[in-house]
Amino acid sequence: xPVINMDELTDKDKAVMEVTQLKLEVKLERWLTSKCCEEVxxxxxxxxxxxxxxxxxxxxxxPFKEKGGCVIF
Amino acid sequence: MASEKAEMDSLKKECDGLRTQIEAARKxxxxxxxxxxxxxxxxxxxxxxxxxxxxxxxxxxxxxxxWATDSRSMVSASQDxxxxxxxxxxxxxxxxxxxxxxxxxxxxxxxxxxLVASGGLDNMCTVYNIKSASPKTLRExxxxxxxxxxxxxxxxxxxxxxxxxxxxxxxxxxTGKQKIIFTNHIGDCMSLxxxxxxxxxxxxxxxxxxxxxxxxxxxxxQTFSGHTSDINAINFFPSGNAFITxxxxxxxxxxxxxxxxxxxxxxxxxxxxxxxSLALSNSGRLIFAGYDDFNCHIWDSMKGEKVGVLSGHDNRxxxxxxxxxxxxxxxxxxxxxxxLWN
Lengths: 73, 342
Known about the structure:
Distance between the termini of chain B: 64 Å
Radius of gyration of chain A: 26 Å
Oligomer: heterodimer
Distance between the termini of chain A: 71 Å
Largest interface: A-B, 51 and 79 residues
Mean pLDDT of chain A: 86
Order of helices and strands of chain B: HHEEEEEEEEEEEEEEEEEEEEEEEEEEEE
Helix content of chain A: 40-55%
Low-confidence stretches of chain B: none
Subcellular location (chain A): Cell membrane
Mean pLDDT of chain B: 96
InterPro entries (chain A): G-protein_gamma, G-protein_gamma-like_dom, GGL_sf
Main location (chain A): membrane
Number of strands of chain B: 28
Number of helices of chain B: 2
Strand content of chain A: under 5%
Largest sheet of chain A: none
Keywords (chain A): Cell membrane, Lipoprotein, Membrane, Methylation, Prenylation, Transducer
Structural class of chain A: mainly alpha
Order of helices and strands of chain A: HHH
Membrane topology (chain A): Lipid-anchor
Shape of chain A: elongated
Strand order of the largest sheet of chain B: 1-28-27-26
Structural class of chain B: mainly beta
């Protein structure tokens, strides 16, 4: 695997690299953002009820709670 | 010389033309924002998490932390020259790994829990076996020509690194050699995140771009722009079809892979500090972003609103992480403490 040292690339090498990459990316088939955002929302809503950080946690189920301490009578 | 200049001009013109085409293609599919999709969703309200534990042990700035897959162990790295492996349930330190170089910038836990890796200004990624009687150096991965900014294990035999030399690299831990070098960024690579299926990863760099890579082919598939400064943090949205970035430009952004563009930004005029780190809650609803202003601000990923803050650190929040079971969030700071919240 040849090591490409960025410092050794000439300006022309970098420009060629950029054009090559853009030629690849221009071909991408893009989805409608409305559909993508709907899917993000659906994903979140499907998992929200189980999301501890959103719903909260009861003291007895909390693995991080401080143990011990004093009880004042 | 004239022909060289003509060549450069022609290449530049070609680049500009292709960029315009890509922007037009992105605009053509931009028929709706996250705000419109989120409109009908319920508000999360004010998110008020409590500080459950403050983990004291490091003697200098903490630069990085990473949860183990058991959602209980966690490893942290500090420029006091140590890695500490913690049992977050008891708050006890389980293992201390002394580092050859104190200038650590990143730490990672292998999914198996057997290994941890770290690196920084030494330009190396060192892998340690923490299950042996005392921590043993397994490999020193030495080929990057710039600092190690981020590392993530795929397994006990492969690790991915992001470097200040502008490349990311996939290493074979059995041979200690580079398998694939990912070249395309023109600025220091600061952060990376692996997709769940381990076929792709995303990287964020100081060229203000985020890139999606094919892990096995070594090619850059997509480039995402929009930030106006270094991207310091990057994480996949749990569905795997989007990712979130955090930048020195004081904003976070969600980029969608399939529409190939930013779908929502998270910024506030009152927030004038760079984003250093970020983590998501399990459903993806909440973004925990660590800032230079000593706080970790909580964003509603869907509505783009700030919904809470984790305050308590006395210096920059440098790292943030949510364990696999989503039970809490950990923040690490230059104040040398790690804090657990839920």
